[in-house]
Design a protein that fits this description.
Helix content is 42%, strand content 9%. The chain is of the alpha+beta class and 356 residues long. Helix 5 (192-214) packs parallel to helix 7 (280-293).
Length: 356
């Protein structure tokens, strides 16, 4: 983290999307215009925003001073299929549900994420200082993505063929908002292994938010990210934490390329060094830990991961091994040398990451 001349901390604001570039690349190559037109528009748009975000990140920004509260402050806007943000305000905190299901899902998802962080982890909003939760829906034309832009959530409606409305899966909302939590805590650089950790942390807490809302145990949950997002006739999800590489396999999207261990680590210049691909490795480590401990995954496994994210000891460029060691240290601090710490060590060992 860099400081400005006045000593104000700056934090990176990477452009973090739920759909990885390799999926959109595959769709953009399709002969079917119903597939390639939305994908090409989305890629072009995301590329422009990613460039703009790098310029903003180079300048930096100061973390706002908020007022911690046990109640969320949500505002949902309608972008009316344009790309100017935030759009028209359509629902504020405490307003009754309207007729637009997308608006209602976005509002509820923001609230579910706020509740999880407050009630499970004692965190008051994304920045732990009462940051208002803002979202824009109906963004762009058939926009095939959702993203956290450093200030707010943005949801596309999808193209209706490959991707449906991006407010449908709660874990997508939790995933993207968790990029904000990472932004205000460990501030992990969005490249290579630290970038894959950034993505994985969002998957971990996204799936925990869903499990918490559903009351699921680690054994009951299916550990899929983005289930319900794929269009008619397409089975699967965006990612599987239980079995990376198995989330989807169809002619339109191709086959899920995620590895589940360091033996299959993917080296690529695409996607910021494969941040959406290699995140499968720490994802599986968390799944293995949570299922080994049993019960609700947020009660022990989630608290270890959150403690590591917020310990203040991680560098922005930490690699998998460095993060693994921090989770071991946090497990010892929380639970001593017992079963929890042993389970953390074993989980990382099973995916080929040294943690000691």
């Amino acid at each position: 983290m860099n400081d400005d001349p006045t000593g104000t901390p700056y934090r990176r604001r990477p452009f973090c999307t739920i759909i990885p570039p390799h999926v959109l690349d595959r769709l953009a190559e399709s002969d079917d215009p119903l597939h390639h037109r939305p994908a090409r528009r989305t890629l072009e748009h995301d590329g422009a925003l990613r460039t703009r975000r790098r310029v903003t990140a180079a300048r930096g920004f100061a973390a706002p001073a908020g007022t911690p509260s046990d109640n969320p402050q949500r505002t949902v806007h309608d972008a009316h299929h344009r790309t100017q943000l935030p759009g028209t305000k359509v629902r504020g905190e405490g307003d009754q549900p309207g007729k637009d299901a997308t608006v209602n899902r976005a509002y509820a998802g923001l609230g579910a994420t706020f509740d999880f962080y407050l009630k499970v982890l004692g965190r008051r909003s994304i920045d732990d200082a009462g940051l208002p939760l803002n979202a824009s829906v109906h963004y762009g034309e058939n926009y095939d993505n959702a993203f956290w832009d450093g200030d707010q959530m943005v949801f596309g409606d999808g193209d209706g063929k490959i991707f449906l409305d991006f407010t449908i899966p709660l874990d997508v909302i939790g995933h993207e908002l968790t990029h904000g939590v990472t932004q205000y805590t460990a501030n992990l650089e969005y490249y290579g292994q630290s970038g894959a950790l950034n993505e994985s942390v969002s998957d971990v807490f996204g799936v925990l938010i869903k499990q918490y809302a559903l009351g699921q145990t680690a054994a009951d949950a299916n550990w899929l990210i983005g289930e319900g997002l794929l269009g008619p006739g397409l089975k699967g999800a965006l990612r599987s934490m239980k079995a990376p590489g198995t989330a989807f396999d169809n002619p339109q999207m191709g086959k899920d390329p995620q590895p589940g261990s360091m033996e299959d680590y993917v080296r690529t210049p695409r996607d910021n060094g494969g941040v959406h691909i290699n995140s499968g490795i720490p994802n599986r480590a968390f799944y293995l830990l949570a299922t080994a401990l049993g019960g609700h995954a947020w009660e022990r496994a989630g608290k270890v991961w959150y403690a590591a994210l917020t310990s203040g000891r991680l560098t922005p460029t930490v690699d998998f091994a460095g993060f693994a060691r921090e989770t071991v240290a946090c497990a010892k601090e929380l639970y001593g040398e017992g079963a929890e710490t042993e389970a953390v060590l074993k989980a990382w060992s099973q995916v080929g990451v040294p943690a000691s």
